Amino acid sequence: MTEHPRLSGAWIGAPKFLKFSGIGVIGFLVDASVLQSAVSLFHVSPYAARLASYLAAATVTWWLNRNLTFHEASHAEPASQWARFVALNTVGGAINYGVFAGLVATSPLAAHYPVLAVAAGSISGLCFNFLLAKKFAFVSEVRFHTD
């Protein structure tokens, strides 16, 4: 299946990791916008709003990655691919938080400037999410061995 012509534009020659990273920025913007809107406009608890904002961001980033980054897997069944993508992203999220928390707990510099720990966690999570997406979420077919 070929890329959607309106979506491919500047993305055509970009490496997959760069596309994935750029789409992650879009996902952050969706996440933050939905969260802030739900809290400010609809007076939803930030915890409930966070669940909705995460699912919105995950859905947008899945769709964009399906069509731009891993377009060769865009013929796969969408619902199961989306579910794999969301589940695998929780692994990257846990790694992100673990790196952040570990640095804040052990590094006086990170404790004083937690934004450094956020950056390190984000980079770690991004790398794991990309590898997991590439190997398990956006595959042409999922193979399970029952040996």
Would you give an account of this structure?
This protein is mainly alpha-helical. It has two domains: 14-75; 76-137, no CATH class. 77% of the residues lie in helices and 0% in strands. The protein contains six helices and no strands. It is globular.
Descriptive key words:
147 residues; 77% helix; 2 domains; 6 helices; mainly alpha
Write the layout of secondary structure elements.
Elements: H1 5-8, H2 16-42, H3 46-69, H4 78-106, H5 108-112, H6 114-137
Helix pairs in contact: 2-3, 3-4, 4-6
Specify the biggest β-sheet.
Answer: none
Helix content: over 70%
SSE pattern, N- to C-terminal: HHHHHH
The low-confidence parts are: none
Brief overview:
The protein is an all-alpha fold and 147 residues long. The chain is 77% helix and 0% strand.
